[in-house]
Amino acid sequence: MSVKVERLKVGFIDENSYVLVYERACVLVDPGDEAEKIVAWLDALGHLPSLIVATHGHLDHTGAIPGVREAFLNRNSPPIPLAVHSRDASYFGAAGERTNRELFRAIRATGYFSHFWHPLPEPNLLLAEGDGIPGTGLRVIYSPGHSRGSICLHDAAEGILISGDTLFRDGVGRTDAPDSDPAALESSLGRLMSLSPQTRVYPGHGEETTIGREARHFSTR
To answer: How many whole angstroms separate alpha carbon 59 and alpha carbon 117?
Structure first.
């Protein structure tokens, strides 16, 4: 099974949205902002997502989900299902506005919430450690720390990892929010460092890296 990975930077904090194209599935990961831009990008690539996956519930990774789903629904396509980890499910659906508002109030970024908030749909699929993503070689690595329900998506055969805000090139996600846990993030990073050093890492912000490169950085922290 082979996979093609495409990246699009969106929003004023340059969040990375990805589309992973397999023979039997097309997975859109973290459509965080600029829904029209994402839809135009997918159209240019000729891709119709079969699933949207959020690596975690924070609004900079989820804000474009309603617009993307609506755009494809208006073309008489069925609603694109949404998959998230169960521990971040409260960022979506009926509880979403309260949960997101409280987070952004706590990190003193209520202006961001006010500008970017749109009601988010309920998840269709709640993910857990080890779950496979239908039609792909991807499996869920539960990687809490940046948020309670953060995940990475790992395809061992293809040697790729979609790391969300768990791991960046030369850095990691912030842990100063109410749903963060520095010790949990440290444990999650230790798990990721055990992957093959050649694993290509596609982070939620910034440029691509490898596990080998970040393992060297991790060992000197």
So the answer is: 7
